[in-house]
Amino acid sequence: MANQHITLEGIGLSLGYSQLGKRKELLHDLSFQLYSGELTCLLGPNGVGKSTLIKAILGNLKPWEGKLILGEQELQTFPLEERAKRIAVVLSEPSYPSNLTVGQLVALGRTPYTNWGGKLSKEDRKWVEQALSDTRLTEMQDERLGELSDGQRQKAMIARALAQDGSVIVLDEPTAHLDLVNRFEIMTLLREISHIKQKAVLVVTHDLDIALETADRFWLMNCGNPLYMGRPEDILLSGKIQDLFPGEKYRFELERGKVELWQVPDNLPINGPAVGVYWVKKALYKAGIKELSEEIVIEPDFRLTYKEKTVASIEELIQLIQAAKN
Amino acid sequence: MSFKISLFPFALLLLGISFLLNLSMGSIWIPPVELVEGLVSGNWAKNSWEQIILHYRLPKALVAILAGIGLSVSGLQMQTFFRNPLAGPYVLGISSGAGLGVALLMLAGAAFGVSLTGLNSWAIAGAGIVGAGSLLVLVSLIAWHVKDSMTLLIVGLMVGSGVAAVVAVLSFFSGAEALKLFTVWSMGSLGALTWSQVSILCLLILIGTIPIIGSIKSYNALLLGETYARSMGIHTSRLRWWMIGSTGILAGGITAFCGPIAFLGIAVPHLARMAWKSADHRVLFPGSAIFGASLLLICDSFSHFPGWASSLPINAVTSLIGAPLVISLILRKNLSKDF
Description:
The structure holds two protein chains of two kinds. Chain A is of the alpha/beta class. Chain A contains ten helices and 16 strands. Chain A is globular.
């Protein structure tokens, strides 16, 4: 990541919609820099204006004030065709024509470059093949979208964005419909793309833990606050991350790198290895057990002893405690 | 790729067979072999056959081909543009719009003293196109934000019945002669056109297809939806006007000359998608055109069954064949996914 540079820059943006003559401002005085060769994750609660910002970055919403600079030039001055050669997009909506093959879908990414009939040149084919192999979809290029899993289909959408050969790829919740493993797969693929292909990749996501694992930079958006940028770990250690969780109920647990419910009881006498103690406490709390008359001992081979009885699972332990109470 | 190309000769063969069958069938059966001989060499086995073919059946068959092409490619454009598998010129009320235009000209025109015999084919075509175009603009404005098939269908249905009501009011106040003229028109007919009218229709189909040729790439990009299409440099708002212009001229012109023809526009693109197993408009546009022409020729052949003195209205035949087809499409569980 030696030659990072700013690919897209927002300066003092004000964004909003006007309806029936009334102007409703959603985002005020927003500034940001998007770097090439980095995976940037945009995090923030629903309704904070993430989609509005994405619309503006795609050029579909004209800023009321401020400027969006792409490369050296203002974004709005690019004709639609030229913008398409610089910014590609992947959306979360799972609508797709099932008759299209993966290869045909990726070839659509070459639309800004082809002639009126959409015929692919040799150069275009090379790009399509490259995008397919970068996303490890070469074997699947003749399969139809309707026959793929959601994860594979989203990969194909990313390959299409790659074939478009822009310097910026914007993804609006690309993993919203995917299972856990596929979420990791997609995000590591995006990380790879940003680093190896030196692209500026911006991902809107709600998966904080996966974003922490993969992102180079976070953008935090919060109601009323300006956009906050920084390395994920900086945001974590400075406590800024807590802004995502207003109120006392949820808390970001630094040691574990994830969100936890605030009140996990610490008055339960449990003895044993730290990991075991933590999870047994959690299970008892969820089961509604708030106090114990005797200590629970966890032995190394996961044997739980309570009131001189030994059991081999939390399930049995809870039954034991409840029986003792009655 | 080879499969897609290799299907075209078969489709063209189907078109050729339907064409010959269509020319042969009618109240008098003319054997295809002697028909081809007559057409090629000019030596007809019977003098009456030459008259029947050249002055009645040949223009009728050409009109069937032109109308089949025009309605099918209109349907395909609308389905992709609205991203709705149930869109089509008839279902969305576009044909009713053309009907309203023609009704205003024939019925209201008569009331204001326009002579009916003076109605030339250009005026009828113009009225149909203006009617279809304005209704299409209206439905487009509504459908713009409607992604749901059901809502769009209901809107089309409502607009269609609203227009039908206006036509009914016009009919109520119009004279017997004008009313008869309009009623005959509304039953749909492919055979009422003279050679000069056929050439006008041919011209309209040509003009209506030009925007499609320029927009094939845009339609392919639009398969992924409007946001994706715009991100790939497609001017979707410009395409909307091209689509309205093209379908207005095609569906409007055809409806003006032949009367409303139901279901062809919605059903044929689905048949083409199924046959070619493709979503690529470079395949679907010619495929739909060939299938549409063949299907309308076949429907017309059925309406002129040998031995019957008179023929069935073409609109009734396409509805009889098209309605079950559309119902079976809806009943297939993943119609919208297949789209």
